[in-house]
């Protein structure tokens, strides 16, 4: 399968190891992965803040860049949700772009979703082994694209890994892009609540698959004295398959 990898702005800038890990896993599974160098932002920040015209221009660029590929895989549920939920909407009355927007939406997947729902990977049979205790943060945008227990189910399949469910797992971490800027008191209260839930698990590692959530939670954990490490599931899988060193 010819896969295009959409790394996203935050992953590329702050968590490039997640992108590298995801590509290594996909290639290990026998797929050809390409990184279109012309990719940029999906337009979500502009769209969320009312700059619809600017967002549409970025969406058109995304549609052109990823048109040649069978499917697009991204490590961000947030950006996957932008493409799938809002691209068809933003071009609903623009017949020149509507079909292509729907086509891209229909072939874009979040990384873990792609492994579980499309490739139907059996992680036990694959021989993934990662010794350690983890909990998992479920990001809000995954709901919009129908991703629910895929990541936690995957963690349970990994040999040697002890998975501890997080209390209030479906509660937002308080980031929400500009929500954290516009409502800092509310956002701060929400993330501190999440930190307390993380502390209660006793897990030294938190699996978080969305870079925005990871930034917010990791910063709050440092400020609240919670000494935990954050990793994406892509990193856990790559390390567990011996494709990357366990850092």
Give structural notes:
This protein has 247 residues and is α/β, with parallel strands linked by helices. The protein folds into two domains: 116 residues, Rossmann fold, CATH 3.40.50; 120 residues, Rossmann fold. It has 14 helices and eight strands. The strands form two sheets. It has a four-stranded parallel β-sheet with strand order 2-1-3-4, sandwiched between helices. It has a four-stranded parallel β-sheet with strand order 6-5-7-8. Helix 5 runs antiparallel to helix 6. It is globular, with a radius of gyration of 18 Å. The model has no long low-confidence stretch (mean pLDDT 96).
Q: Structural class of the secondary elements? A: alpha/beta
Beta-strand share of residues? 5-15%
SSE series: EHHEHHEHHEHHEHHEHHEHEH
The overall pLDDT, averaged over residues, is: 96
Distance between the termini: 30 Å
Q: Spans with pLDDT under 50 lasting ≥5 residues?
A: none
List the SSEs and their pairings:
Layout: E1 2-5, H1 9-14, H2 16-28, E2 32-34, H3 44-48, H4 52-66, E3 71-74, H5 77-90, H6 95-106, E4 108-110, H7 111-118, H8 123-126, E5 129-137, H9 141-144, H10 150-157, E6 159-163, H11 179-182, H12 184-201, E7 205-208, H13 211-223, E8 229-231, H14 233-240
Parallel strand pairs: 1-2, 1-3, 3-4, 5-6, 5-7, 7-8
């Amino acid at each position: 399968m010819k896969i295009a990898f959409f790394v996203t702005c935050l992953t590329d800038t702050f968590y490039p190891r997640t992108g590298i890990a995801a590509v290594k896993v996909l290639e290990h599974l026998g797929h050809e992965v390409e990184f279109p160098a012309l990719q940029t932002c999906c337009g979500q920040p502009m769209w969320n803040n009312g700059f619809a015209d600017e967002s549409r221009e970025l969406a058109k660029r995304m549609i052109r860049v990823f048109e040649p590929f069978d499917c697009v895989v991204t490590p961000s549920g947030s950006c996957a949700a932008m493409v799938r939920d809002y691209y068809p909407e933003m071009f609903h009355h623009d017949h020149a772009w509507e079909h292509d927007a729907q086509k891209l939406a229909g072939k874009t997947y979040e990384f873990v979703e792609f492994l579980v729902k499309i490739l139907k990977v059996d992680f036990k049979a694959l021989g993934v082994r990662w010794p350690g205790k983890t909990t998992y943060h479920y990001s809000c945008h995954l709901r919009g694209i129908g991703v629910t227990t895929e990541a936690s189910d995957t963690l349970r399949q990994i040999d040697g890994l002890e998975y501890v469910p997080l209390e209030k797992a479906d509660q937002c971490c308080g980031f929400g892009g500009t929500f954290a800027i516009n409502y800092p008191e509310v956002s701060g209260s929400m993330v501190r609540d999440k930190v307390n839930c993380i502390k209660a698990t006793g897990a030294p590692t938190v699996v978080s698959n969305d870079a925005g959530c990871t930034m917010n939670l990791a910063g709050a954990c440092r400020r609240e004295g919670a000494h935990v490490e954050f990793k994406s599931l892509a990193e856990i899988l790559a390390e567990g398959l011996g494709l990357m060193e366990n850092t």
